[in-house]
Amino acid sequence: MVGNGRRRGPLWRMRRKWASLGLLGRILVVALGLFAAFVLLGGVLSAIDPSDGEPGSPATSDTPAVGTSTALPTHPVDIPTATATATATATVTVAPSPPPARTVTKTAEAPEPRTTAPAPDVYYENCDEARAAGAAPLYRGEPGYGPHLDRDGDGVACEPYAGP
Fold this sequence. Notes:
Blueprint: H1 10-48, H2 127-132, E1 138-139, E2 156-157
Antiparallel strand pairs: 1-2
């Protein structure tokens, strides 16, 4: 054995450091490495394909189309060459959309007007007290109405249970 059984070198030091991180440290290092790799890969892919993922976008060219007039060249080397362009026509058949779903709305009947009004300084601790006094349901703005009695916040306190 070389070095009396002692392991030296950068590889063994790295292995000792890796072992000293513990499980949570190793997971964190791997996760950060993967994140950095994905960020780098995303940057490379966006540099390669700048079309931003728009399929079917037409290719653009700086070459003038055939038959367009341009300035006459002054030197024979500057004569533009004619290029053939192909035009494709696609026919799209659009199926009629299905009729919209029928919506059914239920309207609530207007509450009956009160025949007797409670006193203006009325306070109900809970809905049982309001029902016992014959004042339930209470509407916002009426004497005795309180937000602690209106569970759903719709402006009607101590309303009867309608069920599901």
